Amino acid sequence: MDYSLFGPSGLRVSPLCLGTMTFGTDWGWGSSEEDSKKIFEAYIEAGGNFVDTADVYTEGSSERILADLIAADRDYMVLATKYSLSNTTHNPNKSGNHRKNLVQSVEASLRRLKTDYIDLLWVHAYDYLTPVEEMMRALDDLVRAGKVLYIGQSDAPAWIIAQANTLAQARGWTSFIGNQFEYNLTERSPERDLLPMSKAFSLGTVAWSPLAAGILTGKYIGKQNKGEDGDRMDGSNSYRFNARNQKIAQEVVKIADEVGTSPAQVSLAWIRQQGVIPIIGARKLEQLKDNMQSLEVKLEEAHLQRLDRLSQVDLGFPHDFVLREGAQKMIYGGMVNQIKGNKNPNLKR
């Protein structure tokens, strides 16, 4: 397995990140400790070193299970966890991005993980209440204390991340090196702002739900949310059942048949060819092994075009406006084709 530098850092990470929201059965589903160990060991044996968890996953069991799994070679692991969310409904300060919740959450994660430091701490979701200055300064304090090595932002608007990193760079604080968001063939809205912003700031990009909660494996085609043997999609994901997503899943299955691989591998390969690291989560060892084999899949341009036609999203204003031929004529004085260094594929040539 090859490794890549993560964002504007020297941190080396594997091309697939192991998601551990499935580690533990506290939520009524997921993997037992024994199965979690098999999944983890198979990932490590294949060369993976990037593991993603969160303080709220399976009521903390995910971190507790990982503690024993990473203990044998802690320094090998790039361990990422998150703070911000809470299942508690009686304490107004046990959730959010503010300093109090940050410090308490990180201390609790360190205890559960039985480690002295977290390699990458994600802000799990932006809360719209905590001032960006407070959040970034508090995160910087933890980095300076050695309890966190790197920081990243998950599930936040592009302008928040841009504001946070600009502020941090101006004041000499630690900046985000990564951006995590939902991204897959059925959810391409990050292409409007999150991905271009990440590229502008050289951020590492990580995709959660790369298989759209199973839609892109093809197992729900024609089932109308009535799968069998555990394949029924729960209510929180039922919104994914629509005609557009069914058509995308059908095309993924067709391409998988042509390539001689699985639909999941096609979907993961597509994400990687966009320059994004997929978070692969599995409840069964065979699912992990299938996902790992996506590293051997490279889609041809014709396949990419077929998938793009079905799944592309409108960029919306102002992106569509400034890329119109008439607008470009005025913006570039009718000379866009004569401007050297024009590498933007969206600009008319």
What features would you describe in this structure?
The protein is built from twelve helices and ten strands. Helix 1 packs parallel to helix 9 (285-292). With 349 residues, it is α/β, with parallel strands linked by helices. The chain starts with a strand and ends in an 18-residue tail after the last helix. It has two domains: 4-313, TIM Barrel (Alpha-Beta Barrel), CATH 3.20.20.100; 317-349, no CATH class.
Q: Give the number of domains.
A: 2
Silhouette: globular
Question: Helical percent range?
Answer: 25-40%
CATH architectural category of the largest domain: Alpha-Beta Barrel
The CATH homologous superfamily of the largest domain is called NADP-dependent oxidoreductase domain
Topology, number of strands? 10
CATH class categorisation of the largest domain: Alpha Beta
- Write down the overall mean pLDDT: 94
CATH topology descriptor of the largest domain: TIM Barrel
Q: Approximately how much beta-strand content do the residues carry?
A: 5-15%
Strand order of the largest sheet: 3-4-5-6-7-8-9-10
Helix/strand-derived class? alpha/beta
Number of helices, counting only DSSP H or I runs of 4 residues or more: 12
**Termini gap:** 38 Å
Low-confidence stretches: 226-232
Taken in chain order, the helices and strands follow as: EEEHEHEHEHEHEHEHHEHHHH
Radius of gyration over C-alpha positions, nearest whole angstrom: 21 Å
| Biggest sheet features | 8 strands, parallel, barrel
